[in-house]
Every structure is written in C-alpha cells, then in structure tokens.
Fold these 3 entries.
Entry 1:
Amino acid sequence: MADGSYELQPIGWVESSLVDLETAPKQGDEGSPDAWLVFEQTVSEGLGDLQRGTEIIVLTWLDRARRDVLKVHPRDDPANPEKGVFSTRSADRPNPIGLHRVEILSINGPRIRVRNLEALDRTPIVDVKPVLNPKARRVVAGSAGRGQSVFGSRPARPACDVDRPHRANRWLLAVLRVPHRQPGDGVAQ
C-alpha cells in the first residue's frame, strides 16, 4: 500500500435548505428539497456537456461525519442490529465520501439545480460523474487507436427478463454469441 496521505480538492459546494443533520432525510428520495450544486469557476469548463433532465452521480465529502466509526445501527435506528459501516450507507465512516444520484433540473453557468440531494448546505463537492445507461452504446479503445463499440456492430440488446429464466438464458447466450441449442440435441443447457 502506498505510504502517505491523499489530498482531495473540492470543486464546489452544495447550497441547500438542509442545515441540520438530525432532521435531514437519510436518502435523497425521502423528501429532500431541490438544491444547488455550485462549482468553482476553475472547473466550469468541465460542466459543458451536462444537460437538464439527465441524472448524474455527485460525490461529496461529508465534512460533518464522524471518521472514527466502524459499526453502526443502520438508519441510526437502535432497533436495527449493528452492522459494519462498509455494508451500510452511513455518513459516519473513515473516509466520509457521499454518493448521490440526482436529476439535473436546470443549469445556470457554474450552478446546477438538482432533485434528490440529501447533502447539507455547504457540503463540499469532490466530483461529478454521469449515470451510465446499461443499454447505451459505449466506445472502448480498439487496436490502432480506433474506437470500437463494446457491443461490436450489433444493436444494443434489451435488458434480461429475469422473471422468465428460459428467456434470460437465451438473452445471455446471445450477448455472449453462443449458439442457442434446442432441448434434445445432446447438449446440456
């Protein structure tokens, strides 16, 4: 393991009516008010392709969390059995990084209005990432520097139907490009 410390530089902060940790929702979709992500001018160029109506992941530094906690009662409810902090969404943890899936409502320069953010007012923002659509075509580096679709030249396939296992198996075989075999042809399925 590398020796030393690591430094995160906030790229912005949250503006929200949420100011009290005790009364704030535990998750963004549990009644959190709309909030603003306010970015430093030095990173505003990186916001250029974000669009209203899309979802993003906002990574925050939960600066008011306790860093000495390794076991918690989930949702701060003593009726819940204690669990290791890494199996929970508790803010209290050795490195209190918040992970928030939010929807962009509007963009005004270096300010982005979002829905479903439970972070408190003035919480530092450390990064923003897009939510990847599992059906989206992604390009990966190919040989000779050319990009090649992860799915090759085939169109994206529909999501697997897990309620019907026989369809799920056919879907998986098609994605992996394995020939589908019929029952009774001597090959186990």
Entry 2:
Amino acid sequence: MSHDRKLQVESLLQRTVAQVLQRGLADPRIKGLVSVTRLEASVDLKTANVFVSIIPEEHEALTMHGLKDAARFIQAKVKQKVALRVVPHLRFVVDESIKKQEAVLLAIQEGMERTGAREQDPTVDTDSSSALSVEPTSKSVPESESDSASSAAESEHPET
C-alpha cells in the first residue's frame, strides 16, 4: 500500500470515528468532550490507534474505559459508513501531546509574568510619526511618445 493511500485511509477513518463519537454512544461512562486528535493505522490496516483528548480531565479514566469497551461497536458503525473492505481493529489511546502543549504554554505564561514582560512586543514602534507615507506617482509619458501614440490612433481611425 502506498504512503498516500495509507494517509487517505487514516484521514477517512479519523473523521468517521469522530462522527460516530459525536453522534453519541449510549454508554453512560463516556462523559465530557471527546475529541479524536489523530489516528495511526498499521501498514496492513489490521489495527489502528485512535488518539483521543478528553475534557475535563477528571472524566478521562472512566471515559477511556467506556471507549475501550465500546471499540467493537464503534468499529461496526465505522464499517457501515465507509467503503473499505477491511476496517481496522480500533484501539483507543489518550493523546498526551495536548497536555504537554498546555504545560509548555503555562510555563511560558508564568515566566512572562515573573519577568514582568509586557503583552505587546517592545520591538514594534507604534508611534504614528515614524510611519512612512507613500504618495501615488503618475506615469509621465515623454511628449514624443504621446505624439506618436495619438498619430497612430488617428491613422487607424481617420475622421470622416
């Protein structure tokens, strides 16, 4: 299977799994906002890791348990919606990258607050007096060119 085909199948499966989760499952353990962040399928398309983000974090463990139990049901729903001979076995995994991104952003924000950094970039000068003004320029045509252009126009359309 080509790399492009694998990427297409992964994208299709990711969107379809997200739709199935969005439409809701009857499992009361699945709570909060569940987002499919990415899907990684094996080369033979037998298995696929579905990376999910769950907000709020306190529902994460219970929701993951519900998703793992509902994986075969979700796979069956996906199979109904896509035109693939084989739909991979779905394995749900918590996507930790969003938590890491949040931690980095929080650390940056705390560092800026500690150093007393301003919200605006100090290198940008907002003084209007230093702004450049550009005046429109008009094209000046030398008289010899304008005379020849007008005489050429007259010769094409002589007045009667």
Entry 3:
Amino acid sequence: MTVPAPDPVAAPSVPASVRVRLAHAAMEAALAVDGVVAGHGGPVGRHATFDRTGPLVGVTAAAAAPDGYDVSLRLVARPVPLHLLAGRVRAAIDRRARRLGLAAQLRAIDVRFEDLEETS
C-alpha cells in the first residue's frame, strides 16, 4: 500500500509532540532524496505514525531511552542501488533533524525498501 505523505497541518492551539515532529521530518527528508518515491505501509499496511492530521504512512517514531526516539521507515524506491540510497536517506534525516532542533532526540534510523517502482 503506497500512500504519499500528508502535509502536516497542525492546530495552532495544540503543538505536535516531538515524536510526531520527528516522524514528519524523517518522511519529508526521505521523500526529498532522489530515488525515493513514497512511504509504504509495510506488509500489513500499518507502518505509520498517527496524529491529528491522520496517518503518516511509512514512518514510525518509537521511544528510545534516554529521552529519544528511534525512527523506522518503509519506503518505495526507483530501481537504484538500495544500500547507497538508504545511506543518503539516513543522512538527509539527520540533517533535517539538526535543522529543526530535533537532533538530540533522534536515535537509530532504520530504512527498509518494501517495493520498487519502475519509471516509464
């Protein structure tokens, strides 16, 4: 199940949690990497982070001690060297987290490719 990432539209009175902000930052960074097509819900379609904007399919952020979060992504990619692509995705997420002031909360970054999408 491939679903593009929704735009994070936050209610002004309720700020998003660090967990949700990291999930959005990770998916946005991943989708900006050439070769990544979309997020993927995983084998049963439930690999997602849920917040007030709805599901962000393809990424989870799980609590990791101390005071941080492990980020896990399931992605669809074009047919490219996936090991190299995963490294670029991790680097992009790290840069985005630093820019947003979330680097201190970011722990492990797991990147898996669930499907390939041929370009025509």
